[in-house]
Amino acid sequence: MSAPAPERSPAASSGPATHPAAPGPRRDDPYYRWSLVIAIVFMVFLAFPLLGAAQADAAPLARGVTVAAIIAFAALYLWGYSERRPWWVLAGMLALMVATVPVLGVGACGLLPYVATHAALELPRPAHYAATAAAALTPLVVALVEPPAALFALIAAPVGGGMLAVRQMIHRGVELGEVETALAITAERERVARDVHDVLGHSLTAIVLKADLAERLVGRDDDRARDEISQVAALARQALSEARSTVVGLRSTDLADEVERARDLASSGEVTLTVHGDPQDVPPRHRPVAAWILREAVTNVSRHARASRVDVILAPDRLVVCDDGQGLTGEPSGSGSDGIRERAAAAGGTVVWEDNAPGTRLMVTLPTGAAA
């Protein structure tokens, strides 16, 4: 038998589901390659009507015409598999089948499984249901006049029903693939949004703090003010480069570098940052997520906490950030805290914010061991 080209689901198209209208064979479709092989193998069953026509008690010309009609029927069936005008193919198959009736008689019903297959797999939805049922049940109608024809229904009905099931499975598979693609696109958008937020949030906070510091230093320590302004320019260039890399998914984070950035950001806001432990204490598989979370946590402290001191603890199974700022007024929410939760969850970890009296304590627990 043959199989249809994958159909677009209603959710993926604005109009009614129809058979694809693009011309030409679907040679890039794996269903085309494998199903064409199956369809060719299935042609062996046409040997029975061919033998019946050749051995029929009829005039040689009639037998020859019948054999030619069966051969044309087979060729049209195969050609119809890649042809985008399935109704014309169906009409031609029916006409050729009828042409065999004078010689084959009831035996012409042996061609109906092929008609049912074409109807089930190639006709547009939902007309293919009615056409397949008609082809499969025709032997029962003929049996009202010629009872032996009922036997052909035992072949045509299962074949037609099976091909409808195959088409439905393919259709559902295509729908599932489209859903998976949509989910992948959504996940990628969320990744880009999260990474851009983390990159720009940190960099813009550092730029604001350094610009404010430079403004306060003008007239008091011009050399340091110029140094802070040059750092603002360097941070802006770095943020632009990181944002570009993030969009294409190329940016990686180094925990040791992020610790130094955190120190620099804290000092720009006149906050003392102390690190307990070493970046090398964190397992390599957890260092990227620890770096991202550290960046966001220190950025949040610099922007919102009004703290004078921050302590960072780096350990194999956890990352802790404590500050002596104004503390929590409820469960943190927003893009930054959501990003921390998502990154920790992706690494199999957990996140807890606690009141540090004064200030806030963020503890990220990360899994350890070979199964982590």
UniProtKB/TrEMBL annotation:
InterPro entries: HATPase_C_sf, Sensor_HK_TwoCompSys, Sig_transdc_His_kin_sub3_dim/P. GO terms for cellular component: membrane. SUPFAM superfamilies: ATPase domain of HSP90 chaperone/DNA topoisomerase II/histidine kinase (SSF55874). Residues 1-17 have a biased composition (Low complexity). It comes from the Bacteria. The keyword S-adenosyl-L-methionine does not apply. Residues 1-24 are annotated as: Disordered. One of its GO terms (molecular function) is protein dimerization activity. The keyword NADP does not apply. The chain crosses the membrane at residues 31-54, 61-81, 87-115. Keywords: Kinase, Membrane, Transferase, Transmembrane, Transmembrane helix, Two-component regulatory system. Residues 188-255 form the Signal transduction histidine kinase subgroup 3 dimerisation and phosphoacceptor domain. This is Two-component system, NarL family, sensor histidine kinase DesK. It comes from Kytococcus aerolatus.
